């Protein structure tokens, strides 16, 4: 889309987006919220909630595709904010497949998209999951040092995958896994490709499932790859395109379309939107509490110290939300990210969520520190947003490099 065709940026949500917002909000309020505490304590995948989301159409390829294509770019951020306002652990269980789906949709061939993305969602009667597996024990921020290997078996016409992936959302319980592996290790990240691993492929298994600080309903685990064989056609983007890219890299030209990086670029503002949902939930709760709780014969919100906290929380949330919406609009309308606006949005929203949830605990005092009140869970949940999809330090690195034009390290 050229700049002349872009949908204008507006602070008023379109009617379509407002409809989605209120629909998802009702689901978050009536279905997710009441279940949040239980699934946080259970630390298990909330299958009944995913099924319910599938039944109403929120967990579906159709929903994700429609919101992704929504012309203002705000369909996904607005929907994700509402889901995570309901609860972050359950929210991530509902949207976790989206990262794997986006990695295929962003750079996959039309055949790969048509065959595999629907299989990641399944149907309301038979819900399926997808997992995107890039990180490894020794390769988190440093994705260039991925050790998982993909070698091509010419005789069989198959890729053979070996290695250990870690911290994969839905890892091992997904039906379709997307695995980032190195085909030409000497080329670092430019020698990597992503591969689709179909359901029940021998050699892929779940390793350790992690017990976490927050988002405990979301499944996070290692994925072990032991001579996993997939057909030649399951390299994302196609083998010919990959071979051409490698030839260009070897000739010293710039490689276009590196799969894992492209996935991260398109999903960062949406991660910011998840953080906004948690931040708003904590702010809403603390605001209400400050209006009701009395000490020294007055509402605590009547103390300037508490009202100023609420003022700062509201400012931080609003500022972050404007940045998330701007970045999502830019991404959808083909605007160039000249100052890494996607990373800026993710950085601001995630750090705002940590600060706002912490201040919410402070406003609730002792109650805030107990599991009787939800802000304690929200604070634990908020921290992940400064870590996954690029830590805050990595976002600052990306922004710093973009604005200075220097190879900042
Ligand atoms: C709950 C959860 C879910 C996840 N889901 C997925 C998933 O679905 N798929 C997936 O592939 N991965 C996933 N991850 C992994 C996540 O993306 C990584 O944890 C993240 O990228 C950070 O990598 P790391 O943990 O190895 O930290 P490290 O890279 O070891 O970083 C440790 C610290 O060093 C800092 N640091 C590192 N390099 C630099 C630098 N160059 N300059 C300044 N500071 C630096 C970091 O900012 C951080 O503070 C998930 C992680 C968690 C915890």
Automatic annotation (TrEMBL):
Keywords from the UniProt entry: FAD, Flavoprotein, Oxidoreductase
InterPro entries recorded: Acyl-CoA_DH_CS (IPR006089), Acyl-CoA_Oxase/DH_mid-dom (IPR006091), Acyl-CoA_Oxase/DH_mid-dom_sf (IPR046373), AcylCo_DH-like_C (IPR036250), AcylCo_DH/oxidase_C (IPR009075), AcylCoA_DH/ox_N (IPR013786), AcylCoA_DH/ox_N_sf (IPR037069), AcylCoA_DH/oxidase_NM_dom_sf (IPR009100)
Domain Acyl-CoA dehydrogenase/oxidase N-terminal per the UniProt entry, residue ranges: 14-120
Cofactor(s), names only, from the UniProt record: FAD
Residue span(s) of domain Acyl-CoA oxidase/dehydrogenase middle: 131-228
Top-level taxon in the UniProt lineage: Bacteria
Annotated ranges, domain Acyl-CoA dehydrogenase/oxidase C-terminal: 259-403
Family: Belongs to the acyl-CoA dehydrogenase family.
Listed name of the protein: Acyl-CoA dehydrogenase family protein
Organism: Actinomadura parmotrematis
């Amino acid at each position: 889309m050229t700049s002349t065709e872009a949908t204008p940026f507006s602070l008023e949500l379109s009617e379509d987006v407002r409809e989605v917002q209120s629909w998802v909000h009702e689901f978050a309020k009536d279905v997710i919220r009441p279940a949040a505490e239980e699934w946080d304590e259970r630390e298990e995948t909330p299958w009944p909630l995913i099924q319910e989301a599938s039944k109403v159409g929120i967990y579906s390829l159709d929903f994700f595709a429609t919101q992704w294509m929504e012309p203002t770019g705000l369909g996904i951020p607005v929907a994700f904010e509402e889901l995570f306002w309901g609860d972050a652990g359950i929210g991530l269980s509902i949207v976790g497949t989206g990262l794997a789906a986006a990695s295929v949709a962003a750079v996959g061939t039309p055949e790969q998209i048509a065959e595999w993305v629907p299989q990641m969602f399944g149907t309301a009667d038979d819900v399926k999951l997808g997992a995107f597996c890039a990180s490894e024990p020794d390769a988190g921020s440093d994705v260039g040092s991925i050790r998982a290997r993909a070698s091509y078996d010419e005789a069989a016409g198959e890729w053979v995958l070996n290695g250990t992936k870690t911290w994969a959302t839905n890892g091992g319980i997904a039906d379709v896994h997307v695995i980032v592996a190195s085909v030409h290790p000497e080329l670092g990240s430019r020698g990597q490709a992503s591969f689709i691993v179909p359901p029940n492929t021998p050699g892929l298994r779940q390793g350790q499932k992690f017990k976490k600080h927050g988002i405990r309903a979301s499944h996070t685990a290692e994925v072990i790859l032991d001579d996993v064989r997939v057909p030649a056609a399951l390299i994302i983007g196609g083998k010919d395109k990959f071979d051409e890219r490698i030839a260009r890299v070897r000739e010293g030209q710039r490689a276009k379309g590196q799969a894992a990086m492209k996935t991260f670029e398109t999903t960062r503002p949406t991660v910011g939107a998840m953080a906004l949902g948690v931040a708003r939930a904590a702010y809403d709760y603390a605001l209400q509490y400050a209006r009701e709780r009395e000490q020294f014969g007055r509402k605590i919100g009547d103390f300037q110290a508490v009202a100023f906290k609420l003022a700062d929380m509201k400012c931080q949330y609003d500022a972050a939300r404007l940045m998330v919406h701007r970045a999502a609009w830019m991404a959808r309308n083909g605007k160039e990210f000249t100052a890494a606006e996607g990373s800026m949005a993710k950085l601001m929203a995630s750090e705002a969520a940590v600060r706002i949830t912490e201040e919410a605990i402070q406003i609730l005092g002792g109650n805030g520190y107990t599991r009787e009140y939800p802000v304690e869970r929200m604070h634990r949940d908020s921290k992940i947003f400064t870590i996954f999809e690029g830590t805050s330090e990595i976002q600052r690195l990306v922004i710093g490099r973009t604005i200075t034009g220097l190879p900042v390290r």
